[in-house]
Amino acid sequence: MATTSEIAPDNPPPLHVLVVGGGPSGLATAIAVSLAGHRATVFEATPPRYPLQGSGVITCPNGARLLSRWGLEEGPDHWHRHVPIEHWQLCNRLGAPLGPDLITSGTGGGGDDERGEEGGNNNISSSDSDHGTSIPTHKTKAPPPWAWKRGDLVAKLRQRAIKLGATVHLGTRVTDVRHEEGSGDGAGGVRIRLHGGEEHRGDLAVVAQGTHSRLRNTLLDQPLEPVATGYTAFRMDVSQSGIVNPSPKLVAFMDGPPSVRTWVGQGSYVTVHPMDKAGLLSLLVLVPGALQQHNEDIIPQGKLIRYLKGWDDMIYSMLDAADAQKEWTATHLPALPEPRHSPQGTSVLVGDAANTMSHFLSQGLSLDLEDAATLGCLLGHVRNAAQVPAATALYSRIRNERAQRLRDMTAVFESQLRATPSDGFVNGAEGLGPEGELRSSFGWSYDAYAEAEKAFNSDPF
Length: 461
Ligand SMILES: Cc1cc2nc3c(=O)[nH]c(=O)nc-3n(C[C@H](O)[C@H](O)[C@H](O)COP(=O)(O)OP(=O)(O)OC[C@H]3O[C@@H](n4cnc5c(N)ncnc54)[C@H](O)[C@@H]3O)c2cc1C
Prior knowledge:
The chain is α/β, with parallel strands linked by helices. The protein is built from 13 helices and 19 strands. It has a six-stranded mixed sheet. Strands 9-2-1-13-19 form a five-stranded parallel sheet, covered by helices on one side. Helix 2 crosses helix 9 and helix 6 (300-307) runs antiparallel to helix 7 (313-321). The two termini are 24 Å apart. It binds flavin-adenine dinucleotide. Flavin-adenine dinucleotide is lined by residues 20-26, 43-46, 53-57, 150, 173-174, 208-210, 235, 351-353, 364-365, 368. It comes from Apiospora saccharicola. Pfam families: FAD_binding_3.
């Protein structure tokens, strides 16, 4: 249901928001801006017929809540699975579940629109594991996570943005963003330049260029570049039909309800989830150390199989069948931009361009969607272009606080991971550390619209 912030302002003409980057956060921004009654134009550098890139992505409940609100549901061409929350299981490296109290009561809403597709409403009272261990849980109203192929997510967001009235230009690279002084009414604006020289004028530019954003430093006082986290990441697609002699446990995982399994131990992290109708799994492995140290093998899976010797044998079977492996040095932004808007307040950063952090809590995408929702919600209160800087300043404040907290939690998780004994975190609720906190009311139950409304009401512009 539309709230006041999603209803177009009656009198004033809508703002024109120029979005640089048509990845998940740029497209989500276009959706949120359109729902707020404004006009969004997205410029995406990738050419129209270029296949959508990427492997699996997970939207945590805090992000899934927004996708439902924006009207994204499963369609015949673009597939995702709702993962019942009790089926996102954190295990030690041997596959024993860590817990016991994985889920605590959610505070952020809930209702019919947050029901899982499996017919359940994720009001969980108990769950089991394939080890026969009962994990006691409290009731939660957090919506289920969604597991995707990145390409399907981007296609679906693009389709929704266009349906809501946004314009999406593909094959269009933005080379510059400049503030433009106001004239008569004092309201400034922004001008972007495209590769080839064409220019567009708008009331606000949203830079959603991802981790390696080139325009970020034209907005910020302090230059900011991503740096290596000290982890090497391996992302693989695993076809279920290609797995030879899967163990009973792996068969149960593949045949059971859609599930996410995460293993931790020896400073390393492995996670798997389904990502398409055809039974493709997405497998992500993060190991400490620089890329070069792991680079001497001819068969990349071979070095991972050796590295993960003694881990849950489910992992071996998947590594054996894995193809399309991608290996890269994981990066993050060494500090978060403070503020994340230009001095004049007419350009802002959203998504990975502002938030990039380590993968451990799977929060990157959800945090990016929250950025879009927060900005859209605040722009819903803007009555004229002169109010844009106040809206972007409030956006910066809300999002920096939130991202910093998640970043701190991620850092704690990482330091616990590095310090873990070989069999993973100690068993027990305290062993979950930040993962447990994340699944509590602060993390997964965060409602970006509700928080932005609250901040606006206590500090209106
Ligand atoms: C190719 C690719 C593959 C990925 N694969 C995975 C994956 O398998 N699993 C996973 O969890 N995460 C993956 N990610 C990261 C994940 O999508 C992001 O963490 C997250 O969704 C943030 O999205 P974003 O929109 O902020 O940034 P991004 O997803 O990085 O999107 C930024 C977009 O901006 C465009 N762009 C950049 N510069 C310009 C410019 N000057 N003008 C116009 N457009 C520009 C890029 O082409 C890109 O589409 C991938 C990202 C990319 C770009």
